[in-house]
Design goal:
It is a single chain. 41% of the residues are buried. The chain is an alpha/beta fold. The model is unreliable at 1-5 (pLDDT under 50). It has 17 helices and 18 strands. The strands form 4 sheets. The protein has a 9-stranded mixed sheet, sandwiched between helices. It has a 5-stranded mixed sheet with strand order 2-1-3-4-5. The protein has helices spanning 19-31, 94-114, 130-138, 143-154, 158-171, 178-181, 211-234, 254-268, 288-296, 311-316, 323-336, 354-367, 384-387, 397-413, 444-451, 484-489, 491-506; strands spanning 11-14, 35-36, 51-60, 63-74, 78-89, 184-191, 193-194, 206-207, 238-246, 275-281, 301-307, 340-347, 371-376, 417-422, 433-437, 455-459, 464-469, 474-479.
Length: 507
């Protein structure tokens, strides 16, 4: 990170022992690449050079006041100090209010101290910033009030505040009221196999095994699908969307793929299901037979994810196909009559620059997909990229931001609008992933999984079941085993435990 600073800071010290406050300070200091000191100090006068002491004075009366004072020392001026103060009304979660105000104070003070803004997202570090907007809108705020509140209460730059407010407003018609959402669910089916492991991927996926092991897995998957079918019928649930993801589901051979998708069709698809998605992912995993199967079984949305249309980059990230293969696959799916095709791209891949993302976006715009998700590269723990990071030349933050702007401009030129957004840890430039769609082609599952206003039933290794309490939109989560062997061996326990959780929630 290229941090332009007025004062060189190597470490910081905390005077508090409160875990919530300490965690809040740590999260913001991470944005500035400044680590906490390993030991404490007994007075300000003993503060080492090139370091900061953070002290929070909290007063609770009819409102919460948090005063954060940072002492810093440099060679010429000795120890100096200044403070930042913010206040907010008390709420049912007092610790959350205190945490937010501490973060905001620290961020504002560090921006002033270092002359550097590490993130246009302010203090929001979570995956789903649009959830904050929905809470504000639920409370009756209009769009301008929401934008101003995001700026004031979370330190978000106006452009990002307007983006997520616009997205949330566009999502509102797709979010069911609590009385309807209570018994409406979506289902995710995860197939944990891929032809090869991509350089940037950290998902728990496996290189496609031989027929015997794949059959063994599909037997377990069919058992879990049947169990979910029973739960849906027993609890009188309505399925809105079904999403078959991975991994790469189409990496199964033709007969296995047809077998799997037939399980899903027979058990989960009814006239009430309004969206049936399959991630086709990669051209080297899909053929004419599989496209015909998807068409025959009623798949309404297919996701083709090239990530880039640059031949050199495709080889670098471990893709065994060409840009021409992507184009040919897209055209075959379109000709088959499957209604909606999504494409994904990643901004910030190793070795890429502004002209390369522009070329990728030109080629994609010529295809005219119905959905487009523009990802910013995240360097994830567990990925080959993270393990071998020194071997790769990544675009810096400024270049990545310019590349994202280029890709975004192409999305708008394609008459698409942003309809969902999420963020990840370790993203280049602390940026975001945004899904675009032509109006009327929005992916309902993407909206539901991001905004968490509907229960999601997860099937397969590493799948998560999220049970939503529609009275207050709180969550209870249940996680399937990630490891394939553990998933199969513990499946009966998994089915029984999840059923009890769902029965308690819906009966």
């Amino acid at each position: 990170m290229n941090v332009r600073i007025n004062v060189q800071i190597k470490r910081f010290y905390l005077s508090e022992e409160d875990k919530i406050i300490n965690n809040s300070v740590n999260k913001i200091m991470e944005l500035f690449n400044i680590k906490p000191a390993e030991k404490s100090i007994d007075s300000v006068q003993n503060l080492p050079e090139d370091s900061v002491l953070v002290e929070n004075i909290i007063k609770i009366t009819t409102e919460v006041k948090v005063v954060t004072t940072l002492f810093f020392k440099n060679v010429e001026n000795g120890v100096s100090s200044f403070s930042r103060e913010n206040s907010a009304k008390l709420s049912s979660d007092n610790s959350a209010v205190i945490s937010r105000l501490v973060k905001l104070n620290i961020l504002n003070a560090m921006k002033s101290l270092t002359n550097y803004n590490p993130s246009s997202w302010g203090i929001l570090r979570g995956i789903r910033p649009t959830k904050v907007v929905h809470r504000m809108m639920d409370a009756g705020l209009d769009c301008e009030e929401t934008v101003n509140s995001l700026k004031t209460d979370y330190g978000i730059e106006r452009s990002k505040a307007e983006l997520i407010t616009d997205i949330a407003l566009r999502q509102r018609p797709f979010l069911l009221p609590s009385d309807q959402a209570k018994n409406t669910v979506s289902v995710y089916v995860g197939i944990p196999f891929c032809p090869t492991k991509c350089l940037y991927c950290s998902f728990p996926s496996y290189i496609l095994p031989g027929p015997e092991k794949a059959t063994w897995f599909l037997g377990a998957l069919a058992k879990e699908i049947k169990a979910i079918q029973y739960i849906i019928k027993k609890l009188n649930l309505k399925v809105q969307t079904v999403y078959v993801g991975g991994g790469t589901p189409t990496s199964l051979n033709s007969s296995q793929f047809e077998e799997m998708l037939t399980y899903v069709k027979n058990a989960l698809i009814s006239s009430e299901v309004c969206e049936f998605t399959v991630e086709a992912g990669r051209p080297d995993s899909l053929d004419d037979d599989k496209i015909a199967v998807m068409r025959r079984l009623g798949v309404t949305r297919v996701s083709v994810n090239p990530q880039t249309m640059q031949e050199k980059t495709l080889k670098l990230i471990g893709r065994m196909h060409t840009a021409r293969d992507i184009i040919n696959l897209f055209e075959k799916i379109r000709q088959a009559g499957i209604p909606i095709i999504n494409m994904d791209v990643i901004v910030g891949l190793p070795g890429e620059n502004q002209s390369m993302i522009a070329d990728t976006m030109r080629k994609i715009s010529e295809l005219q997909p119905d959905n487009l998700t523009i990802h910013t590269l995240a360097i994830k723990r567990g990925s080959l990229l993270k393990t071998n990071i020194m071997e790769h030349e990544l675009p810096n933050e400024e270049v990545t931001q310019e590349m994202l702007s280029i890709a975004t401009d192409f999305a708008f030129k394609m008459k698409m609008v942003p309809y969902y957004l999420y963020r990840q840890k370790y993203m280049s430039g602390n940026l975001e992933n945004v899904g675009y769609s032509r109006p009327g082609a929005e992916c309902l599952y993407n909206i539901q999984i991001m905004e968490e206003r509907q229960t999601i039933l997860g099937i397969g290794p590493a799948a998560t079941t999220k049970i939503v309490n529609t009275n207050d939109w709180s969550l209870e989560s249940f996680f399937n085993a990630k490891d394939l062997t553990t998933y199969v061996s513990k499946l009966d326990d998994c089915i029984n435990t999840r059923f009890k959780l769902l029965e308690r929630a819906f009966v």
